[in-house]
Amino acid sequence: MPTFTADKLHTITFRILSAAGLHDADADIVAGELKKANLAGHDSHGVIRLMQYVDYIEQGFAQPTAQVEVITDRPAFAVIDGHFAFGQIAAQRAVQLGLEKAGEQGTATIVIRNCNHVGRLGSYSQQAAQAGFATMMAVDAPGPGGVAPFGGMDRRLGTNPISMAVPWGKDQLVLDMTSSATAEGKLRVAFQKGESVPEGWIINATGQPTIDPAEFYADPPGAILPLGGPLGFKGFGLSVMIDMFAGILSGSGVCRTDLPRGSNGVWMYFLDISQFVPREQFDALVVKYVDWIKSSRTMPGVEAILMPGEIEKNRQMQREAEGIVVAEETWRQLSELATRIGADLSDV
User: Fold this and answer.
1) Do 135 and 237 fall into the same domain?
2) What are 243-287's pLDDT values in tens digits?
3) Pairing of strands 107-115, 264-272
4) Which of 88, 225, 252, 267 suits a disulfide with 142, CB 3.0-4.6 Å?
5) 113 and 17 share a domain?
6) Residue 21 to residues 54, 91, 121, Cα–Cα distance (Å)
7) 112-127: per-residue pLDDT in tens?
């Protein structure tokens, strides 16, 4: 399988997005987010999304040159209309605005409507934590998603991810998870590799458990299960409430069939730590807390207890050193896409 440095992968992504109609500055932002997802080991939110994104542009679901607009601007909150520009552009604007407002007011809430797929949530919450803020972020898919409700077998919910982050010394604690058993993109990666998926992730169209991702994409389609297995009512309940905050509260709504494919409703919340407790006190307690957690005896076969975000940090260090492997099928599709839309990849 082809292996690329992060810079090479960024160049490939940038050229494809530019050829697809994005302004260079916007293409650079989106390429950066996809590259960071691959570096962190979240290939489901990396360059594999390019085919989907270009498809959205060609079908009119995404508006590559649309301008993100702040339609409600108050001291401690704002509402952003993404006008179906790329979600990464709207989300970056939301982070910038949220940090400015929280720095002035102590807290800030930002919601985004009419937003395309924003990518990996942990990237945005980590940015806030790097700036000294605690943050939460949740995203829903207003239209019919790929997740069945607990006890159901039809698609009714999005994967509805949530991310939370705080500073941890020079690093950050970053929770980034779906309220479903898996992200759809992980099924896409397995499907393209011809691999099976773990038990408990998906069911087929008749409600039977399956480990074949092809059954999720079949006609009629299967569905992803809520997070939690036999306790899936917890993941289901979390997903429902994310629909309330990121969907209805943002103005994106839920149960809608009039929105373009890939639409996201976004809710972000920022707290300026230094305005709640002295930063030195917060940092010292986080370090003490992490040390206490990690001092636990480990189960047989477990080398170390990892905090939220550490797996991604370790993967990033490894991939920065060894390169990013792209699946053969993904690279074939990217090469064909580049040729079709006139993106020159001859020197990469």
Assistant:
1) yes
2) 999 999 999 988 888 888 889 999 999 999 999 999 999 999 999
3) antiparallel
4) 252
5) no
6) 9, 19, 24
7) 999 999 999 999 999 9
